[in-house]
Structure formats: structure tokens, C-alpha cells
Design goal:
Layout: E1 39-41, H1 46-55, E2 68-70, E3 79-80, E4 90-91, H2 114-117, H3 124-132, H4 152-183, H5 194-201, H6 206-216, E5 224-226, E6 237-239, H7 249-262, H8 266-273, H9 277-296, H10 304-309, E7 321-331, H11 338-344, E8 345-346, E9 351-360, E10 366-369, E11 373-374, H12 379-386, E12 397-399, E13 413-415, H13 428-451, H14 469-483
Parallel strand pairs: 7-12, 12-13
Antiparallel strand pairs: 1-2, 3-4, 5-6, 7-9, 8-9, 9-10, 9-11
Helix pairs in contact: 7-9, 8-9, 9-14, 13-14
Length: 495
């Protein structure tokens, strides 16, 4: 058959009662509207069937008993005559469709090989030599000594060049590694600068940070990752391995510490770490829950003997002090609901707040953290609901600010500054007592200030993260025990 295109002749079907459609893309032929075409089932041979699927360009196509390819996609030579007794047209064994809309229903012309495409000039010299020597002896074969080695000087020069090239390759590889690290926003990039580590994570140094990481790293293999996918139990959590991100676990932890320490917006973190904003949100929630679980599993409440063992000398006049308590408030976004506004509005801050209770041992370690409550709640009510009363016994004493009127709800002694109680002034001993308690109680304010060095608490907390703010606040308080040294250098030997 000559010509650029090979046409296919279609014959009218004798039986069009069935209703079949061609499964080839862009082909709308069907037995209902076209009785000139025949419709052929896929071959039973698996290899030939796969070849049909490839030819019709149907990825992941599942062949069924009703799948058909019409005769317009086969060349005329593949359509056998005569028809079957039932009036059906048969295909030549091994035939497959080759005519489609994307090749304009023409038979693809095989591409010529390299030697056929390239134009080569005739080798006239070799032709003349062969003609001249047809009747003579064969051309002499020149002898070559393939075992002759190079000169020593040339070998030395080659070795020197190879060594220089190796050194150049090593130097370039080192430059590529440095550029790769410096272009990524990750922990490794700042590992050489303790100032940067302090700025981004609030840990005193890189060694300090890695010491903390080595404690929690084994537990990261069982981390539960917050994700939009739902498990069989219909929860919003799946194992870490099932939803791993492009970041390494240590860099996910570094991202969370950036969020906590600098209060960065999630979009900013997404640009820094080159990931999607929704991924940043899931990483933050995942690590807030993970650290809340891991750090919360460590008992921070100290027994009486341990507290007395580490008691600083300045507490000798109040040696029975077990814990110093104070409340702190975090400003939050004002809710639209007036009822919610009345619950979270703080008269002390004149703003909507979340309120929590923090307690430290006399040597400065955080030993108690309550959940966050609405800002309208009183300090006394927080102490009752926080659960700390159950940890106290008559042999202990607590030290509080003068606003904590809790003598009637704790089973132990309370060290509290003296009130005037409608008197004109305090006595000299009462003034000294109040001043000494104030000097010691101020250390809980210093711990709270360390907690609020995490810049996320210096801004108005949006209501969108209220579901995880309790975990974030607790983690920030517990991290104070790991991020910093003793409150007072003189207490270093005692703490």
C-alpha cells in the first residue's frame, strides 16, 4: 500500500442489536449509532492484552468482558473476511490497534536508524586501494608493540594531574555541602553559634540543646502525628511513619522551638523551612502534644527531703517552704460571644486572658504547672481546681503573694506578707517579715519571666489555637527546667 496514509474500509454490520461503545480515548463510536463498524473484545492472552492497553493509551485501565475497540482503529489487513456465521467480523491473530485520532488515523512510519539518517561520504581511498590490490598480495599488517609503556616523566605528570584533580573535587564537594547547609533553615546551620541557638530556641547552648534532644529522641520513633487523615478508629492521629514530612525529626523540633521562642507566624515558618503552611500547623500541633506527653510523664513534684537537700541558705528562716506559688495571665483574642467575653475578661489586666498557676521549689525548679483557666477566675479558685491541695500535707508550707488568701483551703502553713487590717501601719517585725518573704517570693516571678521569654506569649493569642494553647503553655513551663541554669549563681551548688 502506497501513500502517506493507509485508509481503512468500513463495512456495514449485519447485527447491531447489541449496544457497545469504543473504549479508545476521543472515539465516540457505538453500535447504537453506527452499524458500519465492528466492535472487538480484548484478547485473552495477557501480554497481547497489555499491548492493546498501551496502544490505546489508557493508564490503569481495567479490561472487562464489555470492553470493546471498534474496527476503525485496525488496518484493513487485520480484519478478516468472510464474516462468521453470526455475522461478526474477526481479527487476524496477534493484531492490535494502531489507528487513532492522535496519529490522524495513519500507520506510524518507523523512524530510520542512525546509519540510515546520517549522510556518509564515500571512502574513496579505501575503494581505490581495494581495487588496486585485488590481484596483488593482501595489504601488509603494520606491527604494533602494545606492551610498550609510557615514559616515566609522562607517568609522573599524569599522577600529579590526577592528584590535583582529586583535591579539586574534594574542595568543590566541601563547598557544595557548605552551600547546601547554609541555604537550608535547619538546626545544623546554627550549630556553631550558641548565640543563635539561644535566640532561636532559648536553650543556653548547642550542647545544652543536644543533651535535651538525646533524652527525648528515642521516644520520637513512637510519636503520634496530627494529620487530616483519619484512622480506622476515626481519630485525627496516625503514627509518625505513616505521615512523615520532608523535615528530619530534629528539624521539626527546631521548627517548634522557633514558633515557641520567637512567636513567628506560620506563614513565616513555611517560607523559612520551605514547606507548606498546613504542614507547619500540623508539625506544631504534633510536637506540642508530643512534648506535653513526654515531659509530663516526668514527675516534677519533689518530696520534702529532696527540697530540703537543695534548700538555698537564704531560705533558712523559712526552711519548711515546699513550694512558691503565683498566677500568670496570657492575653487572648476577644471572643465574639458576650458570654465567653465575660468568662475570659480579666479585671486585673483589663483584657481577655487565660490564667494559669505556676509553682517552683525554693532552689528555682518548676515543680507544678496547672492547666489554663478563663481570666475571670480568682487565684484562690485556681488553687482549688488545680489539684495542688492534694499534694500538700501539714509538714509543708507554701509561700504566696498577699492576694492569695488561701489559709482556709490548704492543709499546711502559708507564708504570706502581712496585711494592715485597718491599722495605721505595720510593726517593725511585720515589715521585716513582709520584706523577707517578698525578696524570696520574687523568684517565682523570675521563673514566670523566663516562661514569657517565649515570644508566643508576648502577643495576643488567637482563638484558633485554643485547642493546643494548654499544651504549649505547659511545655514552655516545663522546658524552663532544661533551657536555663539556676536562678541565682550562688544557688548553683545547691540546685
Amino acid at each position: 500500500m502506497t501513500g502517506k496514509q493507509k485508509k481503512v474500509s468500513f463495512q456495514q454490520r449485519t447485527d447491531s442489536r447489541s449496544n457497545h461503545h469504543c473504549c479508545v480515548p476521543f472515539c465516540t463510536a457505538s453500535t447504537r449509532f453506527n452499524s458500519y463498524l465492528s466492535f472487538h473484545t480484548f484478547p485473552k492472552d495477557s501480554e497481547l492484552q497489555k499491548q492493546w492497553v498501551v496502544k490505546i493509551r489508557r493508564d490503569n485501565f481495567i479490561v472487562t468482558s464489555t470492553s470493546r475497540v471498534c474496527s476503525r482503529h485496525f488496518i484493513a489487513a487485520d480484519l478478516l473476511e468472510p464474516l462468521t456465521p453470526a455475522g461478526r467480523r474477526r481479527l487476524r491473530p496477534g493484531a492490535f490497534p494502531v489507528l487513532f485520532q492522535w496519529n490522524n488515523y495513519t500507520i506510524p512510519t518507523p523512524r530510520p536508524g542512525v546509519w540510515e539518517r546520517a549522510e556518509r561520504p564515500p571512502n574513496t581511498d579505501l575503494t581505490e586501494m581495494q581495487t588496486d590490490n585485488e590481484d596483488d598480495d593482501p595489504l601488509p599488517c603494520h606491527e604494533h608493540d602494545y606492551c610498550v609503556s609510557n615514559e616515566p616523566a609522562a607517568l609522573d605528570l599524569s599522577l600529579n594531574e590526577n592528584e590535583e584533580l582529586r583535591e579539586e573535587i574534594s574542595r568543590l564537594r566541601k563547598q557544595i555541602e557548605d552551600l547546601t547547609v547554609n541555604s537550608k533553615f535547619c538546626l545544623e546551620r546554627f550549630s556553631a553559634s550558641d548565640d543563635d541557638i539561644r535566640f532561636f530556641t532559648r536553650f543556653a547552648s548547642h550542647a545544652h540543646l543536644m543533651g535535651f534532644w538525646n533524652q527525648i529522641e528515642p521516644a520520637t520513633h513512637n510519636i503520634i502525628r496530627v494529620t487530616r487523615a483519619r484512622t480506622v478508629e476515626k481519630t485525627d492521629q496516625v503514627p509518625h511513619s505513616a505521615s512523615a514530612t520532608v523535615l528530619q525529626p530534629i528539624d521539626e523540633f527546631f521548627l517548634f522551638m522557633n514558633y515557641l521562642s520567637l512567636g513567628l507566624m506560620q506563614k513565616d515558618l513555611a517560607h523559612r523551612f520551605r514547606i507548606h503552611r498546613s504542614t507547619v500547623s500540623r508539625i506544631i500541633n504534633t510536637w506540642a502534644n508530643f512534648l506535653y506527653t513526654v515531659l509530663g510523664a516526668v514527675s516534677i513534684w519533689l518530696d520534702v527531703d529532696t527540697v530540703k537537700t537543695h534548700l538555698p541558705d537564704v531560705f533558712q528562716d523559712y526552711a519548711d517552704t515546699q513550694i512558691i506559688l503565683d498566677c500568670t495571665e496570657l492575653r487572648c483574642q476577644t471572643p465574639n460571644s458576650l458570654l465567653l467575653q465575660s468568662e475570659v475578661f480579666s479585671n486585673y489586666k483589663s483584657h481577655c486572658t487565660f490564667k494559669g498557676l505556676i509553682g517552683i521549689a525554693p532552689h528555682g525548679a518548676v515543680t507544678f504547672v496547672s492547666s489554663l483557666y478563663q481570666g475571670a477566675i480568682s487565684d484562690k479558685e485556681i488553687l482549688k481546681q488545680s489539684g495542688i491541695v492534694a499534694l500538700l500535707d501539714p509538714s509543708m508550707a507554701i509561700m504566696v503573694d498577699k492576694c492569695f488568701l488561701v489559709e482556709d483551703c490548704v492543709p499546711c502553713k502559708v507564708h504570706i506578707p502581712t496585711f494592715l487590717s485597718k491599722r495605721a501601719q505595720l510593726s517593725r517585725s511585720e515589715i521585716r517579715t513582709s520584706q523577707s518573704i517578698a525578696r524570696l517570693r520574687v523568684h517565682v516571678d523570675r521563673v514566670i519571666r523566663r516562661v514569657k521569654e517565649h515570644e508566643i506569649f508576648s502577643t495576643v493569642i488567637p482563638l484558633s489555637i485554643t485547642g493546643s494553647i494548654n499544651q504549649i503553655f505547659t511545655v514552655a513551663c516545663l522546658l524552663v527546667n532544661y533551657q536555663n541554669g539556676p536562678l541565682v549563681k550562688a544557688w548553683a551548688n545547691n540546685g
